[in-house]
Amino acid sequence: MPSDSLHEVFALALGLPPAAITEQLTYRAVPEWDSISHMALVAALEERYRIRLATEDVLALNSVARARELLAKYQIQT
After folding, report:
1. Which end of the chain is more exposed for a tag (fewer CB within 10 A), N or C?
2. What would the mean pLDDT of 29-54 be, rounded to a whole number?
3. CATH pick for 5-73 out of 1.10.1200.10, 1.20.1560.10, 3.40.50.300, 1.20.1250.20
């Protein structure tokens, strides 16, 4: 699998091995993705892609696939 920076951000923010990150990974599907780590993930995404997520986007961020869609909204191709 090619390197995917979005998957890398998720792995680092959630403390999961890169192999555990798939497009289908959803919020609270694993114990590591709880409300606290969700905010760490938001911060990591904002830092990595140099954006500021709107509140509604933070609330809508419920999967890796959805994160990719949200980033596209900010003209970021992942």
Report:
1. N
2. 97
3. 1.10.1200.10
